Automatic annotation (TrEMBL):
This is MFS transporter. Belongs to the UPF0065 (bug) family. Residues 1-31 form the signal peptide. Keywords: Signal. CDD domains: PBP2_Bug27. The keyword Transcription does not apply. The lineage of its organism: Bacteria, Pseudomonadati, Pseudomonadota, Betaproteobacteria, Burkholderiales.
Amino acid sequence: MTMQTQGRRHWLALMAALAFGAALSPAAARADAANWPTRPIRLVVGYAAGGATDVLARIIALKMGEQLGQAVIVDNRAGANSNVGAEMVAKAAPDGYTLYDYTIANTINATLYSKLGYDPQKDFEMIGLIAKIPNILVVNPKLPVHSVADYVRFAKASPDGVTFASSGSGSSIHLSGEMFKMQAHLNMLHVPYRGSAPAVSDLLGGQVQSMFDNTPSSLPHVKAGRLRAIAITSAQRSPLLPEVPTVAESGYPGFDVQSWFSLAAPAGTPRAVIDKLNAVLNKTLGAPDVRQRLQDLAATPEPGTPEQARAFAAAEIKRWREVVKQSGAKAD
């Protein structure tokens, strides 16, 4: 090989390296973000259509799509308590065109499953929180219980304690009950179902006695008198049920459990794209029509920064780790 040939190859390699560096420069990243998106965006939901997670995702997807100038298409990938959808997004290209509806379930799954195909923290870039929805402690009206104090007395007086249904082992509905069981030191028997609908059906029929159900699921039955609302699990009362006290004010200070939903992208997604998505999400959550639809679902919008969402998710993983371990809940 001649010196001239070697020199030419070195020169070409240097030019390629400089071009690659320019493509990765902050200026280039900003330019890419300025042009993004140029095609539709997929928003993966880890549950079937029709549930609270899906409904919330569709509300924000429509509005965000209007602002971005590209459709945000909801893609339901149900299975394994949302793990199927989460793993798909964790392995997707970090280009801003695949997003994930990251929920409380993902922080519970971090401990509930001995093995996951993704890391709930390392494999995602948090974009921002969407909303929170409280659960309601509801009982069958035939039960002689009208308050949290009554519920505790009933459980302690009964040889078999009290039964509480859930939408499945490890769900926020299940672990709301487990957390109350731990704080109140009660004999409470968990009865898991495959989804909230069959659990509520058996609660209405008297096969089970109580449930810490998601508000949108039980609210129509409470309004119709088919279920009795004893307490709400959020720190503040719900405007949809202003007469129903919180668990915290019923003798258990600090009790605050809510189902929550956030927006995330695969790890490595450019920060400029994350910031753009965060701005659009926060603007969406501030829109009057979106706020009204969320209020109808008993959901409170939670605008904020990516850093706040990441810190919140990390705290939730730690919080539910203790509850899952003490409850003995497992799912593999």
